[in-house]
Amino acid sequence: MSHATEILQIYVPDVERPSRLMAEKILTQAFNTMHVNVSFVPLPGLRMQVMWREGKLDGNAVRALSTDLVNGVKVDFPVAYEEAVVYTINKKFTPNGYDSLRPYRVGYIAGTAYFEERLKNTPERESAPSIESLFKKLEVGRSDIVVESRFSACVLKKLGIQDVVILEPALERRPIYTYLHVRHKDLIPELESTLKAMEDDGSIKKLQDEAITEYRQKCPA
Description:
The protein has 221 residues and is an alpha/beta fold.
């Protein structure tokens, strides 16, 4: 099937993490198969929300929220995943869902809508503009714990921050979906069938594993 030659502007986070790399690799291959041109636009979460409301983006590559995106249509096939975990220096407890975090000052990245939703019942929250700032606040005691991806442990090594541990078990492993703006909803059935074919032939797992390997190679030993 042929499509118009416009280039779809697809949002990705401005922080490089495995889920972003997974989504970019998988969607690039899928859209290439469909002969659709795409460009990935890295943005901070808050800036993405503004541009989405203004209709300046054609898609969101990495949506983890269960709530719908206004004027967005979900591609009902996950392209990536993240494992949410608790980081801390001196707190000792067994995480059991997000309600178990309520006694603590919880740090998270500002504009991360997924964690904002999950932490809405947490009395004390401490947002940070970046992963680096998030962990530095934890280091100096501005937060008791931090909620982030398990893969973000790589940032701790880059910062040289000591004594931070991950509390087990993980809060959850969540699938991540792509949304297209409603004006592109006609592309979704073909995109879903293309992704399903990629799963069946092993391409999706292969690309996800490649993304994790590439990310870890950039992480200090």
